[in-house]
Transcriptional regulator, LacI family (Thermosipho africanus), 648 residues
Amino acid sequence: MVTIEDVAKKAGVSIATVSRVLNNANNVSEKTKLKVWKAIEELNYKPKILASALARHKEKFRVGICESKRLIDMEKEKVVPEFYTVILTALEKTGEAYGIKFCKMDLFNPSECDGYILVGGDTTKELIKEYKNLKKPFLLLDHYIPGEKVDCIVTNGFDGAYFATKYLIKKGLRKIYHIHGPLNSYGFKGRFDGYTSAMEEAGLLPKYYEYDDVKDNMSDVIDFMLRKNERPEAIFASNDITAMRVIRELKKRNIKVPKDVSVIGFDDIISAESFDPPLTTLKVFKDEMGSLAAKRIYELLVGQDLHPIMMSLFTKFIKRKSSI
Amino acid sequence: MVTIEDVAKKAGVSIATVSRVLNNANNVSEKTKLKVWKAIEELNYKPKILASALARHKEKFRVGICESKRLIDMEKEKVVPEFYTVILTALEKTGEAYGIKFCKMDLFNPSECDGYILVGGDTTKELIKEYKNLKKPFLLLDHYIPGEKVDCIVTNGFDGAYFATKYLIKKGLRKIYHIHGPLNSYGFKGRFDGYTSAMEEAGLLPKYYEYDDVKDNMSDVIDFMLRKNERPEAIFASNDITAMRVIRELKKRNIKVPKDVSVIGFDDIISAESFDPPLTTLKVFKDEMGSLAAKRIYELLVGQDLHPIMMSLFTKFIKRKSSI
């Protein structure tokens, strides 16, 4: 019988910490949470509360976690480092307490279930139609498709980007540029809108550049930006990976961060804290997204014709050394 | 029929505690949770998690409904016809089921309560600061303030406007104009963004005019619009009142609706259906907004440090005779 002590030992943390993670407490770092969840998974530890909840529900609902191969590959290759792993771990743990059994499946070829959670940005309008035809509740996790009126759980990119840009403006900076991913992604579009809103409100001209992470053309982007404009005082990047690439290119050109240029990312991925310099960023609440998704699909499963809503989680500004 | 009282009795805890456990609140010890889950299991209690299970909730919360005098006056004078009346009726009805007692009060001078619901668009950044100082849970109803990270419940204006504009485009129309209220209002801004997004996606040029409902300058707006451009094929107005004003001005100029120009509103106010011609519009789910607000403030009252979210309700397109 695996005990909580075994988990604590394996994860290299205290028993109290394991218990905090199991209780979804707020004062545990994401890194620690991930370590604990990994240990739980590897040891196949069944916490008593969850076990008893499970027994009570006798696995009442089967819910499909639908992911595209593209997304799974990106996770494996750490292109989207640990992002969905954290979300899905929280989703599964919370779901268990609601008597939900999850089964992973291909987004484009779902097998029969009581409900579905469509993960990430690969869901299209056409696919929504197919899922609607299944006549089972479903929701989009980390994605929104305009005009489709489907339940979804997303991060409030607008709000976070608006806050970060305002922060830089309050610090007296004026030349604040934005480097973003493709704007057909709902996530990037929201951050873009938040940045431009804050700039326009302050009477400043937004300046932005698209970065292609497949081609990895950051060197060109930075050259182009510097040729075209004065050197920026700050760059707000639409995610941490992009911010890190920005900082590397600036360093190569002997531009100091944050002395010459402040850089802010978005996501708060695990490596953001240990980066040189540690990255100022907007923390995305991945585990809360996961538990909200579990809670919402449960509501949809037991409720009747609930009105569809978008739930959009606010981010938290984490000030580190890459910005003033 | 097993009730929540039976569970509480068997577990030797209060009904409020059972409800906290069912709602996944953080402020319940693991030991207590286990006792409650065990009682639930042994009694085979099927929680309907929400309203009905909590109907007999004994613990009364006092929650302030905070409105500005301006808003109350507007309601009385039917400038915002029945809008908040419907929302607040649903709020109070649902709240009762959660054991919440509501008291109406001045937005700018709240008296002591367990929580607050700030109604409408008059809440400012500064006011948020004052409410945060009260250290009690609160949420914004029908309003959002960028960067403040406060729980809020709003209508998804973007999505509805995007849908309506797309609808007109699909019908073969190209000259689709937008007449909107002041864009510093979150509601109007979202609808504006949805309209422009759909137009730009289709490669069409957005054309928009601001209407001032205090000055009631619709006659001038329509004259200016017609002088400046070709006659539109459709006008999307940012609410029903505005759409009705548009139609009246078009009629005066012998322009037929929908034969010459399709007109679409937003809100689905009571008079939209009996208008001549009956108004095509986006229905705002006022009662669902009210009940969501009650549910959310309850979660905030019993939970601890819940992560702040924006809940944004999708609208529904209601096709009537004012548009093709």
User: Anything to note?
Assistant: Residues 286-302 of chain A form the longest helix (17 residues). Chain A is about 45% helix and 15% strand. Chain A touches chain B at residues 19, 23-26, 48-49, 52-53, 55-56, 94, 97, 146-147, 149, 156, 158-159, 162-163, 166, 193-194, 197-198, 285, 288, 291-292, 295, 298-299, 302-303, 307-316 (CB under 8 Å).
